[in-house]
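Title: Prediction job returns without error message
Component: structure pipeline
Severity: low
Priority: P3
Assignee: unassigned

Description:
Job completed but the reporter wants confirmation the result is attached to the right record. Sequence as submitted:
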Amino acid sequence: MSRDKSAILGMVIVGLFLLWALIQGIMEVLSGFFHDPRLGYALLPSNPFKIDFADELLPPSHSSLAMLFGTNALGESILSRMLYAMPRDAFVSLVIVLVAIVIGALLGITAGYRGGWVDTIIMRITDTFLSLPALVLVIAISIPLKASFSSVLIGLTIVWWPTYARFFRAQTLQVKARDYVESAKLYNVKPWALFFRYLFLNSVDPVIAYAALDFGNVILTYSTLAFLGIGITTPIPELGSMASNGLGYLPGDWWYSLFPGLAILIIVVGFVLVGDRFQDVINNRIEY
């Protein structure tokens, strides 16, 4: 990975994003646990929820860190609200991708290994989900559930697993014919060991490479939903909703939408750079 300058840039972006999300996320959890809101923004330049109409729509300024990206229509620091929002984006991406891998592995490996009518049923269900636009399907699932944050997580999970099921099925079809799988069956290896040790671990390499790219896709989709006003818990900030709220103030108060949108772009590009290079590494290892 270190031989590619773009991969290094991607690792720096992703590393900083995940490190900050972890640290700030812990502070926000502690804030709720101890019922002390100040812990949630102790590391931020300012209180992200402090409304001050005297500071309404101030442009970016170097006078203080809180004012570096300017303020919104309520006088809140845009930088502080962006930093407060990032742990939620990281949480959503990690949960959705990991759950999708688990569900995809269970269904995909089962379909590929068992074959026959089991394979047909699972793959027809998978094809049904894949035939529908992901964003439209998430919205259709979320709105009846009151478009809450939890409903968005449910919707994204339902939409995200089919791709991984296809990946695992394709790999299992190749792996199950290998000699070590046949030997394991002759030695009466326990079903869970056969599934995990012989099928899952020998099918997961290309899935890991795809997942590295997919984290950015989840963040982009989640931000798009927030941009549309779905899955928002007022007054908790989210990068997509921040960009949406500033649209009515363009082009004069350009910073309102620009910086949250730019943050989404940089984070997604970081995951793309890492995932693209990681695919090369994984593919070389498979060929070797």
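Comment from assignee: result matches the submitted record. The mean pLDDT is 88.
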